[in-house]
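G., before I forget:
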Amino acid sequence: MAPAALVAALVLAAGAATAAQGDAARGEQIYARCAACHALAYDRVGPRHCGLIGRRAGAVAGFPYSPAMKASGIVWNVGTLDRFLAAPLRVVPGTTMTYAGVPEARERADLIAYLVRAGRSPAECGSGQ
Amino acid sequence: MSSFLAIADPQAARRLFLARSGLALSGAAVALLAGRDALAAKSGATRADDVRILNTALGAELEAIAAYQLGAESGLLQKPALGLALQFQGHHKEHADLLAKTVRQLGGKAVSAKSKYGFPVHTLKTQADVLRFAAKLEQGAVSAYLGAVPLFGNRDLSKAAASILGDEAMHWAILRNALGEDPVPIAFVS
């Protein structure tokens, strides 16, 4: 592996590891910050979060994504969420998620832990997610 | 919290100081908040980005208007909660009108309200449910504006957004109070 690629892989792995250690209960409190635009089970100003993990960015049927998000090529997982949530507009310039981000790694880890848990919850998302 | 001293650009620090101290209100912010045009439209290359931020905020405001309408028509709200809901809805209408006007002043196309919103109506069975739902939206709005304020290329728009943020925070506190919760549980919002 080329040095640059190795560094990138290590950075990504570090981000993924940090996020994986998040506390979903604390993340639920942080998720309240998202409540102006997002919900788990239905689309709002932003798309629903049920089924987020493993979903390609821009893939919720009928949601009016920005061209930038549709073209981003991102598949949402712990690592990609960690990078995006740190600075959404830096990762996807042109996104309509015009939010400065969650700069604290600990908070991102907690938030992502909640998104992982809630996004797969039959109680929150039904059996179809 | 950030300090004026932490701002590398002295001009930005001065502007922030003036904004926080209330000693002066810039001409563009006055124009924007008063609904006048011209001055607020001079944001140069960052205009498209600012329009996108404003439109995202406008979309959320339009949804909040619809949410309060749902609450008002639910039959679950009694006075004085019903009066609060209608008052707060009126504020959101004012925010939306101003945001839409500003988008147009900047050469953009303002987003419209959706024909239908997917609110979780089945979860709203009591007045407290409606108030809690509204409080959650208002809390989110505070965070959304907080996350938008530093993004504007035109700092006068940041100031205008911060003004709306303050209003949303008051809504959130009053709704918490109406629910019997500590209206101001924290010293800083995030």
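Confidence is low (pLDDT under 50) at residues 4-18 of chain A. Chain A touches chain B at residues 32-37, 39, 41-45, 66, 89, 94, 96-101 (CB under 8 Å).

More on Monday.
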